[in-house]
Amino acid sequence: MLSRCTSSVLLAMLSFCCLYACVSAERIYINEWIVEVKGRPEFADEIARRHGFRNLGKIGNLQEHYRFVLQNTSHIVDISEAMSHEEQVRTIEQQYGRERVKKNYTVPYDSRWKYQWSLKNTGQTNGPSGLDLNVERAWLQGITGDEI
Question: If DSSP codes are grouped into helix, strand and coil, which group holds residue 7?
């Protein structure tokens, strides 16, 4: 069972979709909320409808956590406060966009790199190019194997 703190951190990381944004402090908030609603799923639908949201459904295997999208962004300012007064709402958190930072990588120095076709196959052994482990793409995602 996830603690409420762990659950909140996990929920904050779920959304990367930026549909309609409004700027507040250093974060760019979007029109998407994660809402924990106790009780039946119908309660979540009802609360979403009452506050101008569309319930996009339950989030993965998380118990009673739903993703809401605001239909009309003209009253976006006080919506979290209003929904927090609902009896079934335990937590509510407006989501915000996150900047993806692309990591640079360099091919490690190895005098035999050009012969390691399993890591980067350019056809150097007269075989078909491209049939390799695709490590450069993994390195671009920051997966390097450090600390293993």
Answer: helix
